[in-house]
Amino acid sequence: MTDMEVPDALHEACAAIGLDGRGAEPIRIAENQIWRLPGGIIARIAPPDRAASAAREISVARWLSTSGIAAVRPVLAPQPVVRAGLVVTFWHEAPPHDHGSTEDVAAALKELHALALPDFDLGHLDPFVRIPERLAAASSLTNSDRQWLLSLYRDLAERWQAGLPAGLPTSAVHGDAWPGNIVRLRQGGRLLMDLERSSAGPPEWDLVSTAVRTWTTGAVTPAEYASFCAIYGHDVTTWAGYSVLASARELRMVTYAAQHVARQPKWRAEAQHRVDCLRGRCGPRPWQWTGIL
């Protein structure tokens, strides 16, 4: 990809805070665009409806830093920057790192969930954010599959709105807690990344991510899950509300894959496999789901 293809929004946002967007290189072009600028700066470009969530993400990152939890660092400048109809935030590039382990995820979540809520509005967790939009964009779905997934979404959303059984105290939640977002620095230590979905809510939402990766997708072994529970001090699968949040997480993973098939046809088989699993066409859990992006 050449410099001429760098979005106008990025050039204009860089100029607004005194950065040079020339030589920007794409890292990932998906629901959000991630670009690397010269000088170790990462730019994240989001759709126009994300200004509020981007501002909250910046606030969360700064709050975590002052709370003693290592997280990605936003550039010291007024953010987010809205240009050409898109929302742009700027971050210092993380040091060399690898995906964390399930133990890293457990330890990081235990620290995060123990924090007192900050004095700014974290917003409230919405496990179903953008699911209808994802289904609308999923052009490869048959009408039968789309209607079935919409019905599942409505049922789960109603159960969520009705209130879940009592569980752990409300806390700050990461929102997308998996080893790609809770990484292990090669120089030592952990780092929290991708804080877009951070909010206040049931900490079980963060714990469900690892449980689903164990008992739904098979990416985590039962032994790794047992270690996860021992470090955190709780097994979310024993909670009466587990099925609602686990089903919501599965639905997010299915619709995420289905949404991107129109742009990346190579993911069509995996996206359809995930739908087939939910619809009972592939036998009992755990299923083997292949990661995309």
Q: What is the domain tally? A: 2
Biggest sheet strand order reads 1-2-3-5-4
Major beta sheet summary: 5 strands, antiparallel
- Highest-level CATH class of the largest domain: Alpha Beta
Q: CATH-wise, what's the superfamily of the largest domain?
A: Aminoglycoside phosphotransferase (APH), C-terminal lobe
Q: And the CATH topology of the largest domain?
A: Aminoglycoside 3'-phosphotransferase, Chain: A, domain 2
**Taking Cα atoms only, what radius of gyration do you get, to the nearest Å?**
19 Å
- Residue windows where pLDDT falls under 50 for at least 5 positions: none
What gross morphology would you assign?
Answer: globular
The portion of residues forming beta strands comes to 5-15%
Question: Roughly what is the average pLDDT, rounded to an integer?
Answer: 94
Please tally the β strands and state the result: 10
